[in-house]
Amino acid sequence: MAGVETLIGGLVVGESPRWHDGRLWFCNWGAQEIRTVDVDGNSEVVAKGPKPAGYCIDFLPDGRLLVTGEDRLLRREPDGSFVTHADLGALGKGWNEVTVDGRSNIYVNNVGFSFGQEDFRPGTIALVTPDGAARQVADNIMFPNGMVVTPDNSTLIVAESWVHRLTAFDIADDGSLSNRRVWAEVDGDGICLDAEGAIWCSGVSGGQPECLRVREGGEVLERIIHDAACFACMLGGADGKTLFLMNAEWRGVERMGELFQSKTGKIETVRVAAPHAGRP
């Protein structure tokens, strides 16, 4: 696709992008940073990540930042300090992606094993309700990665990176998940939902690095080819039609140490037709 431009470079691995308060917020894995950048490329470090890699962010309706930690979900207070929002230790360790729905329910997922250090095991999804209670709501997720909730709060979609598919669940009134089904058979790491109900899917492994716009059922509507792996993507900008692409050189699982010591990461942008889905 024409019109892809580099916004900033010099990152290690940009992950978990979120458009919030007129800026893109993201994690710079390897540098242990939570950063922001505006559409002009002005970037700043706003907080330190809880560990070198594997943490993700989202926001509560009141604007407070959430960050996944090793055994808990953290919340950033107005004074900049981090406190425990929910203790997830009884449900697992190594929490990954997080997304907040329009009812203040928080979904977090766990890949289930130490990537690059242990044999594969399936992961889980946990729910943290507004009262702070946490419980598991799905299991046997084949490397859970990016997640989105539809604006009507009826459906959660998660990328199962290990089996190259997007999987959907119905969301009950109490936040429970049911009616598991394949949403699309495509690669997906980080994902975001647009206003037409299509999903942009980033991809790391495989052949030609690319980011796909996919309709439910698997039809590929658009394809952006990259010169490096795309770890995550997010729609934002003033009109919601700027697609931010978190790219970095991928050298394989056996060379992950090199990945986190290099600075091949960059954020690219491209203008698209459909804006982000927004929240109710």
Secondary structure elements and their pairing?
Blueprint: E1 5-11, E2 13-20, E3 23-29, E4 33-37, E5 43-48, E6 57-59, E7 65-68, E8 72-76, E9 82-87, E10 95-100, E11 106-110, E12 123-128, E13 134-141, E14 144-149, E15 155-160, E16 165-171, E17 177-184, E18 191-193, E19 199-202, E20 210-214, E21 220-225, E22 229-236, E23 242-248, H1 256-259, E24 265-271
Antiparallel strand pairs: 1-24, 2-3, 3-4, 4-5, 6-7, 7-8, 8-9, 10-11, 11-12, 12-13, 14-15, 15-16, 16-17, 18-19, 19-20, 20-21, 22-23, 23-24
Description of the molecule:
There is one protein chain. By secondary structure, this protein is mainly beta. It has a single domain (about 5-270), classed as TolB, C-terminal domain (Neuraminidase). Helices cover about 0% and strands about 50% of the residues. Strands 1-24-23-22 form a 4-stranded antiparallel β-sheet, with no helix packed on it. A 4-stranded antiparallel β-sheet has the order 2-3-4-5, with no helix packed on it. The longest helix has 4 residues, at about 255-260. The model has no long low-confidence stretch (mean pLDDT about 90).
